[in-house]
Amino acid sequence: MSSKRRQEQEGPQDPPLDIFDLSYVTPLLTASTLEERPNVPFQIGGILKSAVGLTQRAGHFARRISFEKFFKPLMYDFETVQRYPGAMVASWFASRYEKRPYHNIILGPPLGSMAYLSCVLDAPFLPLNYRMCINHPKPMNADNIADYARRAREIGDIVTRKDPFVELVSEYDPVHERLRVRNASLMRYKFLQLPRAYEQFIRSRLAPGGSVILVESRTGWNQYTLDDRLSMQVGLTGGIPDEEFLRGSKRLAAFRERYLGDDKAAWRLNMRTEVKPESQFGVSPMMRASIVNSCAQLKKPVLQLFSNDIFQVNNLVSSLFVRCARREGKRPTRFFVHSGLFIAPYEAMQSLLLPLWVPDSSSASLAYAKEYINAYSFETDTAFVALEPSVAGAPDALPFKDWAAAAGQGGRKVRVVANTPRLFPFDITAYFNFWRYMQIESRRIRDPLEIRVNLDMLIEEAQNCQLYYNMHMPPGAPAQP
């Protein structure tokens, strides 16, 4: 989608969200898929695209300079960010969707699999958090956690005083987000209560007899408490656990030595940590209670699905996709193995690609993908593979060949989408090509899904996938079986 067309569609008040975050990409692609149209969530200029494409084959130093130049124009100054409080951002998310009745509305953290869950249920997805990428006044040492915390306090002090409806988590990841941490503060804004825009959306768009679906990943992470409603999380979910960031390890020492020539590979403050809901995928108990209470006042039931393992949520979504296809007498014969931002709900729905989404290219994600592929009960002939780059060369990013081998086991044909396997994880041009390539593939093998699943089927599959669930009925409503 051209920038001009996007401005015409979305209007001039688009908030300065971090476009390299699932909180931006997932609802945007969900909304366009529910309208049955393709979309490209962001576009990069031709000159910058060419420069990055040339230098991704160069050495480490040249790549770093080029990639930093690629990321810099996609950051925002704090003055711009301040003009968009949480209430305005929530209104923007709600405004992405068509003004029509929906039998279900999904609330949850921005997992990539939520886009597919929304599509098989024909339900909008409203994220419970979002991220802003805020410029530093000047570049800082990516390994200086104390300076990063100081900048987080400066931002947090202003935001929390002006906006009482959000809490902030400063995401300090000097491994996966190293080239951005040097130039910007990655601030996660988490709603403290159900935003008024979401309440209004539920009141006006949820059809009679419909339900709100709250999806929770009860994932914990050690965080520093910097101030009231301000925390700092070292590292992000992936193949490196929180304790390893704080205490160090051999692989992190080797990673840091490549950048600094020093082997001090732990990043910690002289403070105690406490386990809190993980920044991106966790949901706070306060938010959970607010949703249930608000929906009770609106007399709307809430189906609460939760797990402490995001792979169980992903498994549920893939299983629902298969069930959706079986209702039409179809059997998906093509896997779509993909990670991170690289989600394509419209293309999967239009070409019967069985989505197998994972958050990253680490060993835990590969183990899950292998397990699902091996347990799949129908014959498959092709696997599409698309992995989001890890341009800092994070030590938990497995080689592309490992993923291709897993996807192609048993003689299955592997089709690489957008990646350059020999350059992975530094093949940043995959960002430019992924959605265009997926649109081409979906037109080539068009086989759309027309029938959707209902709430009873969702609950049944949740039980099969060992997810917990609660059904909260509004006062006076008949009990559910």
Summarize, please.
The protein is of the alpha/beta class and 481 residues long.
Describe it.
The protein is an alpha/beta fold. The chain has two domains: 1-43 and 75-308, no CATH class; 310-461, 3-Layer(aba) Sandwich (Dna Topoisomerase Vi A Subunit, Chain: A, domain 2). It is 42% helix and 20% strand. It contains 19 helices and 15 strands. It has helices at 3-10, 22-34, 46-55, 60-71, 78-82, 86-95, 113-121, 145-162, 178-181, 196-205, 242-247, 250-260, 285-297, 310-327, 345-351, 363-375, 400-407, 430-444, 455-464; strands at residues 102-108, 125-127, 129-135, 166-172, 184-191, 206-217, 220-227, 230-234, 273-277, 302-307, 334-339, 353-358, 382-386, 413-416, 468-472. A six-stranded mixed beta sheet has the order 3-5-4-8-7-9. β7 and β8 (230-234) form a beta hairpin. α2 (22-34) packs parallel to α7. It is globular and about 55 Å long. The N and C termini lie far apart (46 Å). The model is unreliable at 1-12 (pLDDT under 50).
